[in-house]
Design brief:
Strand 3 and strand 4 form a beta hairpin. Helix content is 28%, strand content 17%. The chain has eight helices and seven strands.
């Protein structure tokens, strides 16, 4: 059994109901941080401000839905840094002012828990050195997790040999920190986490239609290999979804 996943998807006694009198929230325990902390010495990079979408094509929702499809072939054209910033905002961007326990984002999440972290393997983005980054939605910044970027061979191997994944300009990886959802929903968190991942991926598909790019959401990957690639422990944080993005 792959590390991490059994905690939710392979339980013998799955309970869909929540006893709201027995959750960490109801016991008065503090909510987990809205964002994974980073080391004080970590390198952080600013992104173009959210809302400054110069170069982003005005696209109606109807047109984006009609055009949406999965792409497995990408051109060699890089993404602009502003385009990457737009996709990050579209998938996990902050809406309004966060509180201590919740931050409204551009995608729905059960109880506004937003248990995901976004990692990026960057290969071709203008003004951004190839590396492994993590998105900081509260700051709208990137933090460097690993430099240089994981090799294309590593990325392909972790995706069960699917070479198109590593041919993209950037690969989005979403991990989940279960404690954020468990704080409110306890054992029923697994269902909400799976649903929330779909919300995020669909916004990426629609956002790609605004920048002349394409993506393909991928759930077929090696759990242990991918967790190791991202540097997460596979238990308190583990990969749940990934999607390569490139110009088409």
């Amino acid at each position: 059994m792959d590390p991490g996943l059994g905690r939710y998807f392979l339980q013998d006694d799955v309970r869909l109901e929540v006893d709201f009198g027995a959750t960490p929230q109801s016991r008065g325990e503090p909510a987990p941080p809205l964002e994974k902390p980073w080391p004080p010495a970590a390198e952080r990079l600013s992104l173009p401000p959210a809302g400054d979408w110069r170069g982003i094509l005005p696209t109606s929702v109807q047109a984006a839905i009609r055009a949406r499809e999965s792409h497995r072939e990408f051109s060699d054209e890089p993404l602009a840094l502003g385009e990457l910033a737009f996709l990050l905002w579209a998938t996990q961007g902050i809406q309004g002012r966060p509180t201590k326990t919740a931050a409204r984002r551009t995608v729905p999440s059960a109880g506004c828990r937003h248990a995901f972290e976004t990692y990026l393997v960057v290969y071709r983005v203008t003004d951004l050195e190839p590396a492994l980054y993590r998105y900081l939605p509260l700051e709208h910044e990137l933090v460097v997790e690993r430099r240089p970027a994981p090799s294309r061979a590593e990325v392909t191997a972790a995706a069960h040999g699917q070479r198109f994944v590593s041919s993209a300009a950037v690969v989005f990886y979403w991990t989940v920190i279960p404690a954020r959802m468990e704080w409110r929903y306890a054992a029923a968190s697994y269902k909400a986490l799976a649903l929330d991942a779909g919300h995020v991926a669909e916004n990426l598909y629609l956002g790609c239609e605004c920048i002349g790019a394409g993506t393909c959401a991928v759930a077929a990957y090696g759990q242990a290999l991918t967790d190791r690639l991202l540097g997460v422990d596979g238990q308190d944080e583990f990969t749940i979804y990934l999607a390569p993005v490139g110009k088409v």
